Amino acid sequence: MPIVKAKNPVDAYRAWASASDVSELSGRAHRSYLTEFVSERILSAVKLRDDASLLDVGCGDGTLLIMARRSGARGRLAGVLPSSEEVDRVRHRLDSEHPGSSIAVSQGFADALPVPDGSVDCVVCNGVLHIVGSEEESVGRAIAEIARVTVAGGTIYIGEVPDRDEFAGEDYGSSLLDYLRGVYRHQGFGHLLKALRRLLASVLGSRPFVYGVYSCYFSPPETFTRLLERHGIQVDSHARHQVLKRKGRVVDSPSRWNYLCRKV
Q: Which end of the chain is more exposed for a tag (fewer CB within 10 A), N or C?
């Protein structure tokens, strides 16, 4: 498997699409239970009607859509991913593991969704907006697209929006060696060991090793709420994102927030 220096998130996920474990596309390699935990929380929050349509913007490995169908959703379920490699991988998963699920996955970007105006009852965008660009203008375009495709009164769930720069003061350099040094300096010896294991797995051929740090968007809840409102999205509630730890312990994220909204 290749060693890839990612210039942006699309490069990273395009490379991860070649991994043996499809859960790489969720950002939680070999920890599919974490994706299921997050997806269950999202579905519980949006309270999807049986006949409602659902669009997952940046659908990762497709777990949320699969769980929605399993829970009895009969409406149109669709996901959008930025690279053809990701789309092909998730379609293969659906065809091989969940034949007949009637889940559509297509290529597109958060700021250019391949979906007609006002056609979706519920839009989920979790763990995506902070990597579409570091500037409010870029994120605003994605929010405008989400508002465009959602029916009036429809549900919008936007999750894992950081309230601070999660990489502030951290320097990971420009080379692989610099990156590994940065992991040790900023994250500690345990994370360095994990990175070295991933590097070894890449050399042995089981998964790509992807490295690189890019600028991400962040916004405190008050500011982000105003941005949503400017695009016709009303925030009904917001709360800290919750993380599943070892032994089933659930804790609040120190920096990320989830927003349950509706299209005005």
A: C
